[in-house]
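debug: dumping io for the single-chain case to check the tokenizer round-trip. Nothing else runs in this session.
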Amino acid sequence: MSFHALLFAACAVTATLLSTSVHAVHVDPNDIVKTIESECGDIIDCVDVYKQPALKNRQFQDNKIQEPPKIKTLRNNLLGRNFSFPQQTWRRSGSCPEGTIPIRRRPTTAGADDKIANPFPSHGRATATDEKAQADGKLEIAAAYGVNGPYHGASAAIPMWKVQVAPNEFSMNYLLIASPHERHFTPISGKSPPDINNQIAVGMAVYPSVLGDDNPRLFIYATNDGGVTSNCFNQECGFIQTNNEYALGATWEKYSTVGGDLYFVQVSLYRETGPAVWWLSVEDVPIGYFDSGMFPVPFIESFHNEMGGRVLDTRPGGRHTMTPMGSGMFSSAGLNNAACIAYYMAFDNEGGDQVDDPVNTIVTNPKCYDVKDFGRDDNRPGIDIAYGGPGGYYCDQ
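debug: decoded output
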């Protein structure tokens, strides 16, 4: 399965209630309770929570919706930093009723499904598979990762940067957890697992040619085979949403500026003891989960927590792309200028916070993009990771 649209709406999208062709997932018009037209042009359909796409999938249709977990995740005690957490833009135009979930209509400018690139192919680590040129282009990565698990998840503040992206390319900021298919191994702190074929990632993506404009949009992604055939974005094929406050694919009111105000979205991926159900929280609100049935090889714990940026380089004109990663500045510019995954924390197997320094790094092209571990934050628990870079023709030199 190729990388489908992140349910991202454009300002020119039609208001007519259609099904698959405008949602990137099948939504029956009869299941839509309310429609909200955002001031920026995004159109949100409030869909009956029990009739959402994932629950109509044969694999999950007999499942009962899980109760939200009791674990409290990332908190809002932001001391001594110019960080802000704005609301999603569509919320200014209305809200979805209780018992419904918000699903964004797909923009009319979205590209064909078979031309959409997968940002998390086969391995999240720097391997020959990752680094080789693909039909879609070359995937550039600048990220840090921890292998001190097993973990029961991770939390962090993901930055919101609006950057200019070349046609058919993307730039994204993300947090990823992963587990191997190979179960007969002994976890050793500091040593990578034999594979990371089970993956869940959450973050902000800019993908104009597919998603309609250059605004960063919220996404969640999962694969159960390292991205070979399984690539699930948002509500496409497994994520069950339970909350009506946040829409996957949505944009926010404000974005970060270099040397100015910094805007973030707080996210957590985690599970409680019991069934292997992985939850996504946004701003400390559990919004939905991946059921254990999403992962035929059980995804019980994470052994690889990764954070940073990715860019798809299609090599326009035969040269390295100009598409920036993060803010477009290298990590040496510091936490107020470079993109920063802030306050990264892991969760232990009891749901408690675990300070986990991700000292390992992936940098596919250090002339273009880099990453730096700034260590513990001065104002609250967690690790700060700066990353990014401008891209450009000199990357080939």
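debug: round-trip ok. Helices lie at 20-23, 53-56, 128-131, 208-211.
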